[in-house]
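User: Can you predict the 3D structure for this chain?
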Amino acid sequence: MQQWARFAILGAMFVTAYLLILAWQKDYGAQPDAPQQAAVAPATNSASDIPTQNTATTDSDIPQANNAAANTPSVSTSSNSQQLVSVKTDMYNVWIDPKGGDIVRLELLSHDQSKDSDQPFVMLHNEKGTFVAESGLIGANGIDSSGKRPNYEVDKMAYTLADAKATSTENGEAHKVLEVPMVYKTADGVEIFKIFKFTSGKYPIQVTHRIVNRSASNWQGQMFGQLKRDSAPDPGKSAQGIFTLGTYLGGAWGTPEEHYNKLKFANFNEEKLNQQAKAGWVAVVQHYFVSAWVPDQSYTAHLESRNSGDYHIIGFRSPLVNVPAGKQYEISASLYSGPKIQSELKELATGLNQTVDYGWLWPIAKLLFWGLDFFHKIVGNWGWSIVLLTLLVKLILWPLSAKSYRSMAKMRVIAPEMQRMKEEFGEDRMRFSQEMMALYKREQVNPLSGCLPLLLQMPIFLALYWVLMESVELRHAPWMLWIQDLSAMDPWFILPLIMGATMYFQQMLNPQPTDPMQAKVFRLMPIMFTVFLLFFPAGLVLYWIVNNLITIAQQWFINRSAAKQGLSTASK
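Assistant: Here is the predicted structure, written as structure tokens:
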């Protein structure tokens, strides 16, 4: 029975290692380096992005409208088409192309490009690659259905929060609201206002189209919003020494009924998104960050995806809008392009927070993240938050683990008696097994209980692995001294070596195998796991070290108590 317990413990540890390897290979396989992004304003969009209404197909860059019966009004020109409108808030540096009114570059001021760079992280760009947020009006009178994008007129070419003329209040806090208006006038008297609304302290950008119909006839069209991206690698991936890590890169969408669905770029045509949804969303997901269009909940949008040449496109279309002569109408959507902050994403749309993908252990991972976030609000350091979380987990599991450690301590105490019985009964294995089972029963020992602590820790350890890899809050988060990024490996391999040492001392407190081969395997396990964890996140290794130290203290105390108690048969 003791032999089976040893094999069970060994098997559990190797299952843990195997699952971690599978997760690493699936989510963090090596990829080629992403192209470098220049820190200068990007070039404007090409007019060839937009097909004419009569030639629009499902492979077009811009979606086909529900109807295409009426002629598109003649377009006006603007001298601003070769310049970009810059917008600077406390969250973003944004560049908008007046030609089409698309966001062609977006930088996150609160996140750097890498832990060794002070440059802001580039989410959207149109230089040395393409990842842009497009929107406009298509349909019978849509100004984006003519084969080239409209040239909007703008009041000025640069905006900051100092230009904000309005405020909003949320939870007692005042936020500045900056509006960036653009206008396009058709020859027959229709004015199209495209208004970008930025709110201080908030990532969502509201994009509104206001149609003022001063013509003599009905205006008809649809709003669209889409994300257009090439096949460049994930710029949010993390460098891990000789390994390069990057999580899921691709499309995603959700509705109130189907909260979160992945759609790989390669499947944008074969498994084409074609869904009607109210309160739905579409997104491009990458490591730590997400860009998403969220149509206004007042209307039912059509969610769709397609590939157009080298571009992957996922977006939405609004229902058909009719604006009678002399009337006006507004239609809106929100664009989120930033870090995967679960609380903000959850408020924006149902299921959007699930782009923080914790895998199949997400219930445990969410609890771990909530615990980390709670402790971080107290101590202000994610490393010490991991230490405190480990203490909390061990405290919760204390009753179960203590029972297991007491049984293992008794196994250590009865080891000499077992050795004596083995010598006494020699080759009589049946008699030896009977006497051993009687000893276990008399001393109330369960040899399989030694598996319990590891079995309890397996899902927690795996879930924490995904928390460290998916939670943007821990991206480039320092602990102390040489550990300046808990989501990356220890650059000096000190933590894995400490983990191996603590694992060795923990094993010394356990009853040692009587079989020489088993003993040799167990002695090699700390070395094997040290090598295995060399390239894993420092935060994960820190958790294991603290867990081992607490376990050593717990086992030492229980072993000492069991040794004092001794065998119940000793006095007989």
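The radius of gyration is 31 Å. The chain is about 35% helix and 25% strand.
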